[in-house]
Automatic annotation (TrEMBL):
Region (Disordered): 120-175
Domain of life: Bacteria
Name of this protein: Histidine biosynthesis protein HisIE
Length: 175
């Protein structure tokens, strides 16, 4: 039995020949289309020249000049109308600009007020911290002051108890 290699080769060669033939036909059609286009342009060239000449002639004629004037007048009127509309819309814009400026001023004033309040609050907090530090310092001073007499008393007790021990030892030695 065959494993199909021969069939695959035959199909691939057929596909290759079909693609080659299609590209040949496409290039032939493109060449023919180019030839036809060139011939059409050659035949149309004189009529195009005549049409352009007639347009120039019409523009130079009295009616052509009148048309140009009418078009220019219409353009001026349209420009004036556009300016009028922009002026009206621009007036509205100036009003909105004024409102925007007022709003920004209000926002700036609010921000300034918030900053002032924040500064005051920080000052108060700083003052409270300073007062707290002062009270802590006072308390430590009081504690230190209380410790000093306690130390003195302890030293006195130690002094008093030392002689007693000596006498007790002496007594013990004597016995």
């Amino acid at each position: 039995m065959s494993n199909g290699n021969g069939v695959t080769a035959a199909i691939s060669s057929a596909a290759g020949s079909v693609s080659d033939k299609a590209s040949e036909i496409g290039s032939a059609i493109a060449d023919q289309a180019n030839k036809v286009m060139k011939a059409a342009k050659k035949k149309a060239a004189p009529t195009i020249k005549k049409a352009k000449a007639q347009i120039k002639k019409a523009e130079k004629s009295d009616t052509g000049k009148a048309v140009k004037k009418a078009v220019a007048g219409a353009k001026k009127k349209a420009a004036a109308a556009v300016k009028a509309v922009k002026a009206r819309v621009g007036g509205a814009k100036t009003a909105t600009k004024k409102a925007a400026k007022k709003a920004t001023r209000k926002v700036a004033a609010k921000k300034a007020a918030v900053k002032k309040v924040a500064k005051k609050a920080t000052r108060k907090v700083a003052a409270k911290k300073a007062a707290a530090k002062k009270t802590v310092r006072k308390a430590t001073r009081k504690v230190a002051a209380k410790k000093a007499p306690a130390r003195k008393a302890a030293k006195k007790v130690a002094r008093k108890s030392a002689p007693r021990k000596k006498t007790a030892r002496k007594v013990a030695r004597k016995r």
